[in-house]
Amino acid sequence: MKPRKLDALIRQLENYLECWKQFNGFVNLARSKKFSAEDENQFLEVKSVLIQELELILAAMEISSPTKEEIHALIGSAPSLRYLSELNDAALRNLENQWHKIYIGWHAILGQLKVRQQTEGDKSPLGGLFAKSRK
Predict the structure, then answer these.
(1) 26 touches 43 (CB < 8 A)
(2) How far apart, in whole angstroms, are the C-alpha atoms of residue 119 and residue 17?
(3) Domain CATH code at residue 127
(4) Taking all residues of the chain, what is their mean pLDDT, rounded to a whole number?
(5) Which pLDDT band, with edges at 50, 70 and 90, does 123 fall under?
(6) Per-residue pLDDT band at 124 (split at 50, 70, 90)
(7) What pTM, to 2 d.p., does this model score?
(8) Are 48 and 71 spatial neighbours (Cβ–Cβ below 8 Å)?
(9) Which structural domain range is residue 62 located in?
(10) What is the mean predicted confidence (pLDDT) over 19-31?
């Protein structure tokens, strides 16, 4: 992968992870049962971005985990904040566990991309100079 493409993919994945954090924030908002109609709209928007960006990321790279099915299942199991607010604590904990597994999986992928970026940077003429000065 070309360095520019790799840099863009890393930025895209970092932004994607921010959306995952927002999703979790909305789950916590639902748990508190203190949300507005505007919060519901923003939650729907975050879910839309998560699904759309997933397709863009999958088009750019092949990943084995988290799977598209796992992500769709999690997003599908949270249709609205109102729905989440009515779940019992065990169901919410299960949803949070699923979210955490996916979130950690994305961070592992981001880490792999950053290692690749560093390795590619070391191969460039300028990167080679910096690699030598680090030794």
Answers:
(1) yes
(2) 23
(3) 1.20.120
(4) 91
(5) low
(6) low
(7) 0.85
(8) no
(9) 3-134
(10) 98
The Cα-based distances of 55 to 13, 20, 34, 100 in angstroms read 12, 15, 32, 20
Q: How many CA atoms lie within 13 A of 62 on its CB side?
A: 0
What is the count of structural domains for the chain? 1
Convert 75-92 to b/e letters by CB count within 10 Å (16 or more is b): beebeebeebbebeeeeb
Report the 3 state secondary structure along 63-102.
CCCCCHHHHHHHHHCCCCHHHHHCCCHHHHHHHHHHHHHH
Angstrom CA distances, 33 to 24, 30, 53, stand at: 14, 5, 28
Which pair of tokens denotes residue 75?
Answer: 């997003």
